[in-house]
């Protein structure tokens, strides 16, 4: 009798494993980048509603929040009940920077910035409501994509804790040579669909030459374009879900994950918004936000804000 009982247990386990495998395959297929395109390549934000797969930095390793204390998880709530998520970085006591395309979509109801833990859903994370958004006022003659947004949050971040710190912006004239090793981090897609989707990952990538960058993306604006990755062999890369996350070179915020063709493909490195191009504008909007007379001036005030 006991032998029959154990046989039944084995059958149930095998059936459950088969169902799980089928679901993983389905999830992985669902998570292949959709044509949410700008400049003919895929934006790296992720719809939670349309893609259930496990997603993180591609070819990376698990990270602790103390290793990347400036990392932000940006959650965007839409009117239809769906959510988008992206990355971001802390650049001031009340300011966070991310990719503009993460929030430039119809019917955005609320944007939340979550900090303080490598597990984006941990009970000890701190949640902040975005109350103002600044988008770069691109001029017609500028050869830039301007995929950048600066958020003002509802209250000061507890900067100074080991796991919550701001990162310094790369200077507008700072030189970042080709082959400089930089780090990227986020909760975007990985090469393994079985990875825990809630845990932060990071990896290192080298800066790619402007020549190779233009060759890979000939139709992209080049004024604010920066490429990083392993050009010849592919491999480590940012991926879908990492948009707006930090590219850190020589200890300073140099780029924001923007877009790319696939993830980790040879001859198609990851693309980033070059923060150096926007240094003066970023400093300007941050200063204006913090002036006493500016609570209702500048930027786009978020309407009907609810607490995250």
UniProtKB/TrEMBL annotation:
Pfam families according to UniProt: Trypsin
Gene3D superfamilies: Trypsin-like serine proteases
PANTHER family: AT26814P-RELATED, POLYSERASE-RELATED
Keyword Signal: yes
Protein name in the entry: Peptidase S1 domain-containing protein
InterPro entries xrefs: Peptidase_S1, Peptidase_S1_PA, Peptidase_S1_PA_chymotrypsin, Peptidase_S1A, Trypsin_dom, TRYPSIN_HIS, TRYPSIN_SER
Signal peptide: 1-22
Protein source organism: Gryllus longicercus
Family: Belongs to the peptidase S1 family. CLIP subfamily.
A GO BP annotation: proteolysis
Alphabetical keyword list: Disulfide bond, Hydrolase, Protease, Serine protease, Signal
Domain Peptidase S1: 57-287
Single GO MF annotation: serine-type endopeptidase activity
